[in-house]
Amino acid sequence: MCRNCGAIVGGGQLQCGVCGTEVSGSGDSRRRTVTADPETLSFARAVLNRPYKFTLVLLCANVFFFTLMWQTSGMGFSLMNPLPGNILVAFGAKLNFLINDQHQWWRFVAPMFLHINLVHLLVNMYSLWNIGPYVEKLYGSAKFLVFWVLTGIAGVVASYLTVRPSLGTNAVAGFIFKQFDTPSAGASGAIFGLVGVLFVFGIKFRNELPEGFKRAFGTGLLPVILMNLFLGYMLRGFIDNAAHLGGFFAGALLALVVDYRRPGENSSVATVWRVLQAVAIAVVIVCFVKVGQHLRDPLPVSLDPQQTQADQNAPPQNRAFVLYAEALTKAQEAFVVATMDKNTSNIDAAVKQLDESPRLNQRSGELKDKLKALLLRAKEPQPAPSPGSASDKVNLAPAQQQLFADWSDWQKEYNQWLKTDARTFSGMNDLQTESPK
Question: What is the pTM of this model?
Answer without folding.
Answer: 0.65
